[in-house]
Every structure is written in C-alpha cells, then in structure tokens.
UniProtKB/TrEMBL annotation:
Residues 26-92 form the RNA polymerase sigma-70 region domain. Keywords: Sigma factor, Transcription, Transcription regulation. It comes from the Bacteria. This is RNA polymerase sigma factor. One of its GO terms (biological process) is DNA-templated transcription initiation. Belongs to the sigma-70 factor family. ECF subfamily. Residues 123-173 form the RNA polymerase sigma factor 70 region 4 type domain. The keyword Calcium does not apply. InterPro entries: RNA_pol_sigma-70-like, RNA_pol_sigma-70_dom, RNA_pol_sigma70_r2, RNA_pol_sigma70_r4_t2, RNA_pol_sigma_r2, RNA_pol_sigma_r3/r4-like, WH-like_DNA-bd_sf. The keyword Acetylation does not apply.
C-alpha cells in the first residue's frame, strides 16, 4: 500500500506482517497526542517516555490480534493508560500530572475544553462547577474508559472512594443541569 492513504487499520495489518515502516507511520500519527495525555496524568517525563515506548511495543506485538474498524487511537490509548497504571502500581516515586492532581487550581486541558464544548454548553458549565476530585474520577472512568479498579490504582485511593465520588459527581451534574 502506498503512503498517506493508508488508514490506521491498514497500518496495523501491515504491522502484523512485521512491516517496521507501518509502525513508524502509526507512531508518527499517534505518539504526540498519547504523550500529551500521559504527561497530564504523570509528571515524570522518564515514566511517560517509557510508557509511550511500551505502548508501541505492545501495539507491534498485538497488531495481529486487533479487531476493530476505525478505533485504533482508542485501542492505543487503552494500552497506554493501562501501562501507566501498571507502572504507577510498581513505583511510589512517580508524580501524578496536573490532570490527576486533586487541587483547587485544576487546569482544564485543551482536549477537555473541546469535550466540554461539544453539543451542550450547559454540560460544560456544570462540569466546570463540580469539584476537581469529582471531575477527575469522571474523566478517568467516562472519558478515558477506565474501570473503577484502574482509576483507584491510578489515583491511589480505595475503589469504594472512586465509586462514591463517581456517584457524587453524577448527582452534582444532575443538580447543576436541573
């Protein structure tokens, strides 16, 4: 197949056949945004770089098992966030990034700002009014698609706390939208 007309799914099929050029192209397409999202969740640049590398190694190794039509980016992000969680479980010296810090001066990323503006401005306003500790749980479970167990590991809080914050976040959103 030729050049830039290849889809991500095409690249994965070629990677399954051990085409290193396809891996390079997939990396070029996705590494920047994956790196940015990882860096918002982990303030250790070495850990982020290692997780990014591990993500593409896993994609290389798992390309033949990919079963999707156009969700390669989501598949890659799923690998990346799970690699980050695994790394954070093993190390206690890794610093969380601004997207996961529970503090009042929570800074909304450009990506989150776009998501907040989608379709319904009232939802964005409501999300902006809930506390950072609730918003981060929503981000991890709803936007990033993590399980409560994975969010618990990443945040370093009990799973029950994640569940109760998620319930409180939903209640707060309902109240804000009423």
């Amino acid at each position: 197949m030729g050049g830039c007309d290849r889809t991500d799914a095409d690249l994965l099929r070629e990677m399954a056949g051990k085409d290193e050029g396809a891996l390079r192209e997939l990396y070029d397409r996705h590494a920047t945004w994956i790196h940015a999202r990882l860096a918002r969740r982990c303030a250790d640049p070495d850990a982020v770089a290692e997780v990014l590398q591990d993500t593409f190694i896993a994609a290389w190794d798992g390309a033949a098992r990919f079963r999707g039509d156009g969700a390669v980016g989501a598949w890659l992000w799923g690998i990346a966030i799970r690699r980050l969680i695994s790394r954070l479980r093993r190390r206690t010296d890794v610093r969380l990034g601004p997207a996961l810090l529970e503090r009042d001066e929570y800074e909304i990323s450009a990506e989150e700002q776009v998501l907040l503006r989608l379709e319904n401005v009232d939802v964005g306003t409501a999300l902006g009014r809930i506390s950072p500790e609730l918003r981060v749980v929503l981000q991890l479970t709803v936007i990033d698609g993590l399980t409560t167990r994975e969010a618990s590991a990443l945040l370093g809080i009990p799973r029950g706390t994640v569940k109760s914050r998620l319930q409180r976040a939903r209640t707060s959103l309902r109240e804000e939208l009423a």
